Structures are given as C-alpha cells and as structure tokens.
Amino acid sequence: MKRLMLLSFVFLLSGCSDIAVLNPKSVTGQEQAYLIWLSLGIMTLVILVVFVLFAWFTFKYRYTKNKDGFVPTDVKGNLKLELTWTIIPFVLLAILAVPTIMTTYDHSPELQADNREGADKEGTHINVTGQQFTWTFEYENGKTVHDELIIPEDETIVFHITSKDVIHSFWIPELAGKVDAVPGRVYTYEIKDAERGTYRGKCAEYCGIQHTNMVFNTEVVSKSDYEDYLKKPDNQDD
Ligand SMILES: [Cu+2]
To answer: What does pTM read for this prediction?
Structure first.
C-alpha cells in the first residue's frame, strides 16, 4: 500500500515536467519564476529544519525504562532561544517580501493615465478588454482585434487591462502571471522582452458558462512583422 502511494506520488510529480510558468519565454516571466523558486527554497529550508528537529526531539525525549518517574526541571523562558526563533522567521520573511513587492510594483507600473493615449511610459501600449466571452485588443493605431494578440519581440509591452462586465483575468502562462480584468478599473501590466513564438492565453477567473472558451492566441513576432500587422485591416467580426 505504501509503495502504491509512493508510486502514485511519483506519477503525480511526473506531470509537472512541463509547467509553463516555470519555463517562461519572457524576462517578466523569468523574474516571476525566480520568485517562485525563491519562496520554494525558503519553504524547503524551513520544513527541513522543522522535520529534523521534530525527529530529533521525538527520539531524544522518548520514553525509556530508566526515565521512569523522571520529572524534568521547570524552565521559565530562554531569551536566547526566543530571540532566535523570532528573528530568523522575520529575516526569512524580509528576504521573501522585499523582492516580491519590488517585482510586483515593477510589473504593474503606475502611469499618469489609465488609457493607452495618456500613458507616459515607453513601450508598446495595448488596451485589453475582457467581455463575456471574448478578449479585445486595441493597438496604438486604433486597430482592434478579438481573441488574437500580436506583440513585437524584445520590447516592453504595456497592457491596460479592464473589463466590460464581470471580473475576468488576463493570463498568458508562458509569458507572465495573471492579472484581473475588473469592470470600472484599468490595471497596467508589463510584459518585458518576450521571445518569438506562439503562446496560449486564457481567462483565469471563472466568469460564466463559456469561461473555458475565453481563450486567445498570442504571437510574438519580429518588430517589422509587427509594423506590417498594424497596417492590415481589423479582423473584427461583429
Ligand atoms: Cu473567464
């Protein structure tokens, strides 16, 4: 039975070999993957220390015959130990919090204006609108396209994300983490230096009966191909 459980665990793990989030194709994705590995590293360290101490104490203070009737002396606090187990978690949390907050703010810059036109930041600006059950992408020259996102490689793309109805979530797992698309608000989100390729995008917030079909294709192309693409007419089908 134990072996069976172990085996099924190995099978479960083997499913993890191709996690897009851990194999990112953009600088933004790499920075986010680094945070995942950093937190995993710190958690592993903590769990190892806890488990080793647990095993050691269980063994050391186990019941044996010659401890019969033994009553340990009453200890009233230990400043050194208490300081140690207060300061170490504090330091670990700081190591985790500082890069996480810096990266988060860096990837969601505050701009002078919510909309593409008034934004002060360098890069390619694209308005993203979620609506049951489609994504609309509006480029800098006004070109508007549904469920197909074309972006230039090796550039900073600034998305201005919003929703027309309910909360959706904009997610291209191979390029960057998800961002909520909230009606009445515009969130800015940057994807830096994407590699050329085709990636799946999806809505990552359950938004209604057709939520699963709220997907889009992302194509990262060369800068000249991107310029050519902008000149082509919209593919608006409604
Ligand atoms: Cu959805």
So the answer is: 0.81
CA distance readout (Å), 24 to 55, 67, 193, 199: 38, 57, 11, 11
Pairing mode, strands 148-152 and 215-221: parallel
Whether 7 is in a domain gets the answer: no
CA of 45 to the centre of ligand 1 (A): 37
Question: How far is the centre of ligand 1, averaged over its atoms, from the C-alpha of 166 (Å)?
Answer: 9
Give yes or no for residue 172 having a pLDDT over 70.
yes
Q: Where are the alpha helices (DSSP H) in 128-207?
A: none
Q: How does residue 73 score in pLDDT terms, banded at 50, 70 and 90?
A: confident
Between the CA of 234 and the centroid of ligand 1 the distance, in Å, is 24
Claim to verify: residue 127 and residue 224 sit in the same structural domain: yes
Give the Å distance between the CA of 114 and the centre of ligand 1: 22
Q: How many domains does the chain have?
A: 2
pLDDT, tens digit (0-9, with 9 covering 90-100), for 177-209: 999 999 999 999 999 999 999 999 999 999 999
